Amino acid sequence: MEAADVFLPVIAWCRTRQSQDSQAEARQQKRRLKLLAFQRLRLKKLRETWRLREKVYKQSKLRRLCSHDTWMKAITHQFLRDHRRQSPKVWLHPRTSDWWENTAATFTDHEWLQHFRVSRETFSYLCATLNPQLKRQDTNYRLCIPLEKRVALTLYKLAHPCDYRTVADLFAVGVASVCHCVHEFCTVVIEVLKPQLVVTPNKFQLENIEECFHHTYQIPQCIGVLDSMNITISRPPHLNSEKPDRESYLAILFQAVVDDKGLFWDLSMSCPTWVNDNSGELLVCEDFSTRMHNVCRTDSSCVVIGDAGYPSKNWLLKPSTNTSGLTAEQELLNTQIIAARSVAHYAFERLKGRWRCLSRRNDCNVEIVKDMVETCCVLHNLCEKNNDMCLPDWIGQEPFQTVDENPQKNGDAQSLDDLLQLIQDSAE
Description:
Order of helices and strands: HHHHHHHHHEEEEHEEHHHEEH
Shape: elongated
Helix content: 55-70%
Radius of gyration: 49 Å
Strand content: 5-15%
């Protein structure tokens, strides 16, 4: 009985403990269920809140888009109203062309010749001949430079040692326009007029040149006189050679052959090189020697007269440099050659006197300088063929003229007259 009394309380305590544990587990399960229900309810409320916010955002966004669209329509309408097409307006620097339009129009023939170095007839011929290449049309933005003004400002630039700005102010155009007009005019003259005015003489013309030289200077089979001059230029940026001495200057060697009338029929120019007053004569390029050799034709023994400083060629006739041991015939030949060389001398003097841009340093590009020199030679031949006057004050002496198809010089050139008289007396 005592053992039962001992175990009964233990069993009762265990049952009580088990019941308490069951109740505690039931309470925890109930608490978990309540927490889960609360979380579900909270999540549901969050979803509803986000749906509401999304709905409000979409509505506000739609309102903003609608207002933006209305705003853009208003701005577009205002922009189109303020920027309706109007007549074009271009900024233009005000200039007055009174000198060309009024003053130059009243020039006498002498004043016109002083300013442009060509007669009015030659000027009209240039305008008519170069019209297809130089004529421009007006645009909606500005008027083009008339053809006559383009030709006139180019002739003025070539005839006077002035810069582009001076010509621009005188003709009431821009500096860039003057530069463009000059370059374009030179290019067109070389393309159109040079093949007509600076050409190698044909067989019949060569015979006439030979006859004139032989009749005037008693030099047989002479078809031209060779001479050269230096065109001073600025140093181009690509030139790497240094100046050899203080007396040297940078120049382009221009070389030409002149016929009995003082017209150029062959032109050659070298690359920029350092020269000085003591530099000897030289042939510009091998092509020139080849051309002269082909023209002179060794079988016919035609010659070109040149200075004693040129290298010896079978087509080149030069005076003797050693004058101490010459015979009477050699001295007479030297005298005849010197007299004949005056034809080229006077032709170059007239060229430089008429186109003064050749007498000063040219700051243009090397290729443009060469084009300007060729253009001046073409215009020289045109003026000589049209018998345009070469005024004495252009070259500081009496002009060289052609009398009876023979080159002569007026005025005080007693030395040349003495030489010609000596040649004629010796021939008799």
